[in-house]
Amino acid sequence: MWRYLDRADAKIAEIAARQHGVVTIEQLLWAGLSHSSVRRRVRAGLLHRLYRGVYAVGHTDLSREGRWLAAVLACGPEAALSHASAAHLWSLAPKSPQWAHVTVPGDGGRAKREGIVLHRSTTLRPTDVTRRRNIPVTTPARTRRDMGWSAERTRSDLERRFLRLLRAHDLPIPAVNARIGPYTVDFLWRSERLVVELDGYAYHSDRHTFTRDRARDRELARRGFTVLRVADDELASDAPAVARSLISLLRERRRRPAA
After folding, report:
1. From CA 212, how far away is CA 22, in angstroms rounded?
2. Nearest residue to 8 via CA among 40, 48, 43, 37
3. Where are the beta strands (DSSP E) in the chain?
4. So what's the pLDDT on residue 151?
């Protein structure tokens, strides 16, 4: 009997390790527990009920990923992390929402669950869902659509916000989308050899883009240009600090002797 339970515990621990510390009732039964065994473990504090049919193993101090996966598992086998939660998981947005956003296919009603913002969609397809960190999640393209992001609109909005910042602080207006050799840069003060690149999360979220941008920055530096990268949340939350950095850089570059 005890040996049988030890084997069940080993299976449960293996599942929980893959799933950020959470398991479903179906997985517990598959591991060899009975419903009465599950109830006893809940009473003993070995399992902690998070949602109906979803448990934390050993403790409830879950990571953010554990809470997200628990929410997805609670909403059914076709559910996926989505909207603001998916945007943060994909590094498309800087902040994680307080509640987990989950999308399920169809338009039928489902019971509300504490800590979950449930979205119902008649257009969610299997191709819209993938896995990241072993969490079912909407793809980056689907996430952007769910968030109402338009790449072109987001880009132009960023540029307009940056130009408004320059005018508000009486800074000289640079060339926009200017060419330096094979590269097109967002903003260029040519005489000061200063470049500003705007990093929107919808543009600079994947490893390939990050690596490519840094390689380009190194090449521009080799050509004698200083590159300042400004994230979109910096413009929103601390625009005066961005302006101070620009003022300082422009003054510094103007004091340098011509190459």
Report:
1. 37
2. 37
3. 22-24, 47-51, 54-57, 80-81, 100-105, 116-121, 129-132, 135-138, 175-180, 183-189, 194-199, 226-231
4. 47
Q: What are phi and psi of 240, to 5 degrees?
A: -60, -35
Give me the pLDDT at residue 78, please: 94
Q: How far, in Å, CA of 47 to CA of 24, rounded?
A: 11
CA-to-CA distance for 161 and 91, rounded, in angstroms?
A: 22
Rg (CA), the chain: 25
Would you tell me the crossing angle of helices 151-168 and 239-255 to the nearest 10 degrees?
70
Question: What pLDDT, on a 0 to 100 scale, did the predictor assign at position 46?
Answer: 94
Judged by phi (left if over 0) then psi (alpha if -120 to 50, else beta), residue 31 lies in: alpha
36: phi then psi, degrees, rounded to nearest 5: -70, -35
Averaged in consecutive runs of 10 residues, what is the pLDDT profile of the chain (259 residues)? Answer: 68 95 97 94 96 95 96 95 93 85 82 86 91 94 81 62 89 89 89 88 55 86 92 80 92 73
Residue 152: Cβ-neighbour burial (10 angstroms; 0-12, 13-18, 19+) = exposed
Give the pLDDT of residue 1.
45
Q: Does pTM top 0.70 for this prediction?
A: no
Position 56 scores a pLDDT of 97
Cβ atoms within 10 A of the Cβ of 2, count? 6
Contact of 95 with 51, CB cutoff 8 Å: no
Per the CB < 8 A criterion, the answer to whether 225 and 151 are in contact is: no
- Contact between 71 and 81 (Cβ < 8 Å): yes
Q: What's the rounded Cα separation, in Å, for the pair 161 and 236?
A: 9
